[in-house]
């Protein structure tokens, strides 16, 4: 089949979601301040990921690849955002609603090429505003690069392409130039031997001026080896119209697409390196940065020290002057000034550590607030709990928060002291200043300043150990003598 993209799209163009309110406001503002429309192509199959999950939802630093792109184009000043998706991928639509609530979503029923995909979002292009095309599987491109890609349009270029000198250009579209002027982009399959030798490679992302975008896109045909509508053909069409095309350089690593899990791993490494650097420049010391895993939303304050091998899952905020010792794992947790935790601490959903809290090795905190200066130095689980200021939680203390059906809360008052190896069976409270004897199983509330001991009473019999030992030794000797007799001949 040959023909224009417009014909190919004429059947079944449909908007499946549009939260117009906020977006229209942003659009009007964008028109005044020169905003642009970002079209994010995310209708890929992602077969090589070998996954049940859509490729663009695979995460880097705990944010989907698509999420990284949506955030970057918004930061670059996109006043309108249109995302092209494979129909029926509700989880992709939910991710768009979460990270770019004003975006419009455009299903591409058939995957007929990148230009076809951009025109699937035609309804978002009609405003005549500049268009920047991004790929949902190219997640490392920064907001700054998107802004650089668009910049030549303001100086009169009709099209700007992002390109790099590839170490090995195999598989990329080649940017063909003559005396420094761009003539066309040739896809690998359509390239001659001579053209394949060109190393200037197309990163895929493109900016098109509002004045020309639609006219160029609609004239793109599919007369090529793949029978696809190539966005890259916009370049030759613009040149034929006498319009100017700019090439914007980009580092090859930044333009890397993700097609399989190996590339996903490389992209993760790049994002981690960026996050660590930002944390370091923000005043945190990472003693062995390459061993620390951060999430895209991790916040580390000034003079935070992170020892080697720590993992920061989503939702972690660490206040100034905190120390996170080696092998700690944090997720959805807030630490206030000067908290000192680890090594081997695990903080889970809803952990709040106020100023100066100290947690030592093998302590796990879940959905619990520890007020200022509270301490749990060894081998402890505090879940669904509130621990008062300055309380001291002894080694091996466990809040028994789950009865097999429901979770219950434990409350420990300020300055309370929980003896080692105690089990606090929730719901239960220990009052301020109370003392719980080591090895207790506390099932009833302990009033403030009370002493509670809930364990077997100690029995001591003088000399009984020695007597027992002698009895046992005598029995053993008698048994050995009997065995020896049984072995003698008659
Ligand atoms: C594209 C470029 C190529 C460039 C390369 C860089 C074209 C024709 N070629 O090729 O010059 O060197 O990127 O990686 O643009 N998509 C859709 N619907 C479609 C087709 C694609 O949503 O019908 C999406 C894909 O999911 C992907 C992006 O568009 O996110 C790029 O498509 P892909 O097939 O990867 O293009 P390449 O062959 O890599
Ligand atoms: Mg690709």
* Tally of separate domains: 2
- Report the end-to-end length measured between terminal Cα atoms: 106 Å
The percent of residues in helical segments reads 25-40%
Outline type? elongated
- The CATH architecture assignment of the largest domain turns out to be Alpha-Beta Complex
The hetero molecules present are:
uridine-diphosphate-N-acetylglucosamine, magnesium ion
Radius of gyration: 33 Å
CATH topology type of the largest domain: Spore Coat Polysaccharide Biosynthesis Protein SpsA, Chain A
Can you identify the CATH class of the largest domain?
Answer: Alpha Beta
Structural class: alpha/beta
Structure write-up:
With 490 residues, the protein is α/β, with parallel strands linked by helices. The chain folds into two domains: 5-255, Spore Coat Polysaccharide Biosynthesis Protein SpsA, Chain A, CATH 3.90.550.10; 286-452, Hexapeptide repeat proteins (UDP N-Acetylglucosamine Acyltransferase, domain 1, 3 Solenoid), CATH 2.160.10. Mean pLDDT is 93; it is low at 1-33.
Provide key terms for this protein:
single chain; 490 residues; alpha/beta; Spore Coat Polysaccharide Biosynthesis Protein SpsA, Chain A; UDP N-Acetylglucosamine Acyltransferase, domain 1; 2 domains; 19-stranded parallel sheet; eight-stranded mixed sheet; 26% helix; disordered N terminus; binds uridine-diphosphate-N-acetylglucosamine; binds magnesium ion
